[in-house]
Amino acid sequence: MGPLIQQFCLVTCLIFFPCSSAPVADGTETERQSTSVSTCTLYGLNCTVWFAGCVTFGIIIFLGVVFLVWYKCCRDTQNPPQPDTPSQPDKQADKLLQNVDQPNDIDVKHLHEVDVTLDVDTAHPNLLIDGKTVCWIKEKPQRLCNEKMFDEDPYVLGIMGRAWRTYWKVNVEKKDDWVLGVTKATANRKGQLVLSPANGFWVIRLSNGERLKAMDDKEHVLNKNIPDKVGIYLDYNENKVTFFNVEDASLIYSFTNGPSYEDEVRPLFSPWNNDTDPIDILSIVITKV
């Protein structure tokens, strides 16, 4: 690299400081001219040729840069950037999402399963609470009345974390009467209750072991098999409360006029007061992969 740099420096000096000779008093002009000629020659070319070559090379570089700028400007003019618009969803992916949102896809609901416990402070005095189990006791009251509890109908509220979608399961096997669902935290708890969405209740109930009903604004008798285990799915996004038969994954009923996230609803349970058989909130089962 050393000789190449020296040659480059020599050419640069020859370009900016052209060779010249000046008369000398002692008559050595001829010798200086000879030295200048040898100095101003590189690879057989004098400094004028080297200067012209460097200028030409510089012009080529300049024209190349100008061409690239012109080409980019023309391309941007012919293909202007498109404004940001929502991309069209992939049809197959959209179909999968629609399938996920279907209320009878019970496997997906398991992804939103939460742990639910019983709130003793809200339980009717004759309900016996034992962990996640509740049953009716005919004998003496289990607790003193307070402003939070249901004082006439045998209900108790559940406790769970808040999320946009939640799912839990209840075992009602061997029970002839029960009520399950959700209710607004602000709904009435005193006296005999009127169960309907208008009053802040989204529930289904079983009566006499044979009549399964959805307590909508108009009561619906459901022509469904009596379930032993009920799955309850609360979806604030869709304003739905949906009930499943856990055993065969079939749909029992779906309230489409469900609560919003601002309503803050809570699980509602009742073993009713006809027998002492319990209902149980099922714990989350973690499957190892």
Treating each run of at least 4 consecutive H or I residues as one helix, how many helices? 5
- End-to-end Cα distance, whole Å, is 65 Å
Count of spatially separate domains:
2
Measured as a percent range, the helix fraction is 25-40%
Number of strands: 16
In CATH, what is the class of the largest domain? Answer: Mainly Beta
| Main sheet: strands, sense, barrel | 7 strands, antiparallel
Q: Assess the beta-strand content as a share of residues.
A: 25-35%
Q: Which strand order does the major sheet show?
A: 3-6-15-8-9-10-11
In CATH, the homologous superfamily of the largest domain goes by the name SPRY domain
The CATH topology of the largest domain:
Jelly Rolls
Q: In angstroms, what is the radius of gyration?
A: 44 Å
Uncertain spans: 8-17, 19-39, 81-104
Order of helices and strands: HHEEHHHEEEEEEEEEEEEEE
Mean pLDDT: 78
How would the blueprint of this fold be written?
Blueprint: H1 2-16, H2 29-39, E1 41-42, E2 45-46, H3 47-78, H4 91-101, H5 106-109, E3 117-118, E4 127-130, E5 133-136, E6 156-159, E7 165-171, E8 178-184, E9 201-207, E10 211-215, E11 219-222, E12 229-235, E13 240-245, E14 250-255, E15 265-270, E16 279-281
List keywords for this structure.
7-stranded antiparallel beta sheet, 289 residues, 2 domains, 5 helices, alpha+beta, 25% helix, Jelly Rolls
